[in-house]
Each structure stands twice: as C-alpha cells, then as structure tokens.
Amino acid sequence: HLHNGRPLESIKIVNEAGSMGAPLMFIDDLKFLAQLAAGNLDAPEVQGHGDAGALIPFSRQIPRLLLKGETEAAMQLALPILDDPETSDWSAMILAAILGDRERANLHASRIDARPGSTITLTNASLVCACGAHFDLEATPNLKARMDVAGFDWPPPTAIKYPAKDW
Known about the structure:
Elements: H1 7-19, H2 27-38, H3 61-67, H4 71-83, H5 89-99, H6 102-113, H7 118-129, H8 141-150
C-alpha cells in the first residue's frame, strides 16, 4: 500500500497484523516511511533517530528534514555519514539519492552492481528509499541486463518525493 499511494492504509494493516501476533520485521521503519509518504512530518512515528539495526541505515531525521525543506540541517547530519569510509555503499547510495546527489548515488550503485548478490541489494534499496529510481539504471549494467531479461519495469514506484531529487 505504501508504494501504491495509500501509505496510511499500510500502517493500518501492519497494526492489525501485529495485534494478531504476526512477527513483522521493520515495523517501525514501515510506519516511519508511511508517515513521510503521507506528509505527516510531525507524527510520533517520525520523531527520533531510529534504532540500531533498523532498515533505515542513518538518522531518520535526515529524510524528515529534507521533506520539511530544512536542507541545510539535513546536510549537516548527512555529510559525516557520506564522508565516512566505513559507511556502506548501500547506505551511501540511499542517502545520496534522497539528497539529490545523483552522481554519488550512481557511484555507489555501480560499486554494488559489481558484487555478487547485487540485484537483490539494489532492488531492495528502492523499498527503503521509497523515492523511485535511486540511481540511473545505466550505472548498473549487471542489474540492467537482468531487468531486461526478466522484463521488469524501471523505475520503481515513488512513494516519497524528496525536493532535491529531480530524477
């Protein structure tokens, strides 16, 4: 529902499944993304920085600040992460995409594309980004070839439109 334009419905379904005892991974992350997609930037689910081991690999306040138009504050939180050589390509790719840094997102995507398991890694990132194409498909020739053979569409659906991301 999140990627089909009904973000608040996804929260309702997750809450219902949880009340029935269904073990769901990344519930807080889903609720966070759904509230962002719905434009509820001050909802309780979007407060705080997120938990260690969360699906979102950086402070939740970065996407929230970007959507609130507080780009400079978001950049202050993001740059130390992007400049850290220990930051994974996956995290840096997603972060660069929501910041609108297409060149950096493509760089990290191409690094991932050269590794085993890249197709799963790259396509799963679209769920975390929720921002559609988080890199140019041409930057990932291995993924592009697999997408062509499978007949899959690109780009992925866009649930959250970040102001600085223009692709």
